[in-house]
Design goal:
The chain is an alpha+beta fold. It folds into 2 domains: 89 residues, 2-Layer Sandwich (GMP Synthetase, Chain A, domain 3); 39 residues. The chain is 47% helix and 13% strand. It contains 7 helices and 3 strands; from the N terminus they run H-H-H-E-E-H-H-E-H-H. A 3-stranded mixed β-sheet has the order 1-2-3. Helix 1 crosses helix 2 and helix 6 packs antiparallel against helix 7. The longest helix is centred in the last third of the chain and has 23 residues. The radius of gyration is 21 Å and the shape is extended. The two termini are 43 Å apart.
């Protein structure tokens, strides 16, 4: 008999994609999806290859992240490995990564991001001016910046709608 109760989405994700993504599938999927944000400038010359448990007794806590590094950049990355670990762990909110291993190999075009480049939408200038006027009254700079980015998105969508473009 099938249960008609609602189940948390996380359990469904694990049952569907868990085997394909491995034991730390959720973390791996998030890391891959947000790598440019997490790694910052380093994302231009390195990418995650594998997330695995450390081997042997007395190893450091946390998982081992293997990163593919562009030839000639591994030394630079080695110097900033602590910063990368801190950024990744801050993204997840806990000490997920304990160590990073670098593998030097050129990026092949097939492994690079296959996402299509997003079209840049031009904001509606009238709407943008009106929204910016409202944002100027916000005293918190971080909130004002967030509202500015939101306003640009709204104005761009409105500009797209007014110009009659269809979203593909």
């Amino acid at each position: 008999m099938r249960s008609e109760t609602m189940k948390p989405l996380g359990r469904l994700f694990d049952s569907v994609a868990g085997k394909a993504l491995g034991k730390h599938g959720r973390e791996w999927a998030l890391l891959l999806a947000h790598w440019p944000e997490v790694a910052g400038e380093a994302a231009a010359f390195c990418r995650p290859l594998k997330l695995e448990r450390p081997r042997g007794k007395g190893t450091a806590s946390g998982l081992v992240l293997k990163l593919q590094a562009q030839p000639g950049r591994a030394l630079e990355l080695q110097h900033m490995h602590r910063q990368l670990i801190d950024r990744i762990n801050a993204f997840f909110g806990h000490a997920l990564i304990g160590r990073i291993v670098f593998v030097q190999a050129p990026f092949s075009p097939s492994r690079q991001s296959s996402r299509p480049q997003a079209r840049t939408l031009q904001p509606d200038p009238d709407l943008m001016r009106a929204l910016q006027g409202r944002i100027r009254t916000v005293r918190d700079p971080a909130l004002a910046e967030s509202l500015r980015r939101l306003a640009e998105g709204i104005a761009a969508k409105e500009g797209q709608r007014r110009s009659g473009e269809k979203r593909s």
